[in-house]
Design goal:
The protein is α/β, with parallel strands linked by helices. It has four helices and eight strands. It has helices at residues 28-31, 51-59, 76-85, 97-105, and strands spanning 14-17, 38-43, 62-67, 69-70, 73-74, 111-116, 144-152, 155-162. The strands form three sheets. A three-stranded parallel β-sheet has the order 1-2-3, with helices on both faces. Strands 6-8-7 form a three-stranded antiparallel β-sheet, with no helix packed on it. A two-stranded antiparallel ribbon has the order 4-5.
Length: 164
């Protein structure tokens, strides 16, 4: 739901990256948009083909941010510029492997907050936390400095700051 679960906490503005506006109108994110400020970012070329869907989303109080395309995906630099114009200067990214890669590749990640569970799974059919072209060599890796670590129940929490 991308909402605050802390008693007395405030809900963040929800921004869903959905290049082709595939979000179902019946999803909980859409259904709760009148209670929690919600935006969907989509590639601007989809405006004409999805004009009915955009109207339906807007009727349900979902804002639609039309974003330039970059390599078949949302241009994340452009999206960050649009968010800055909306006075949004910090985001918490909860994304899949491709979105995580886009943000790292475009140098848009300053800090990571990572939870490591004591479980091992993965393999060829189970994507890791970063997709895309990835980084093949250690010298090309995205470098972070640990600034906070703690144990939360069975998990390990790491707060990492980007080294530039």
């Amino acid at each position: 739901m991308l909402n605050c679960r802390l008693e007395g906490g405030r809900n963040p503005i929800r921004i869903i990256c959905d290049s082709h506006l595939r979000i179902p109108l019946t999803s909980r994110l859409v259904e709760t948009a009148s209670e929690i400020s919600t935006f969907v970012a989509a590639i601007e070329e989809n405006e004409k083909t999805n004009s009915d869907k955009i109207r339906e989303l807007e009727k349900k109080k979902v804002g639609v941010l039309l974003v330039k395309e970059k390599n078949g995906q949302l241009d994340m630099d452009y999206l960050m510029e649009k968010l800055a114009l909306m006075k949004i200067d910090s985001i918490l990214l909860e994304g899949g492997a491709e979105l995580n890669w886009s943000m790292l590749r475009d140098d848009l990640v300053n800090e990571l907050r990572v939870f490591i569970a004591p479980k091992i799974f993965g393999g060829a059919i189970a994507p890791g936390p970063v997709g895309g072209d990835g980084v093949a060599l250690p010298d090309e890796a995205f470098m972070f400095e640990p600034v906070e670590t703690s144990k939360i129940d069975d998990d390990i929490y790491l707060r990492l700051i980007r080294k530039k």
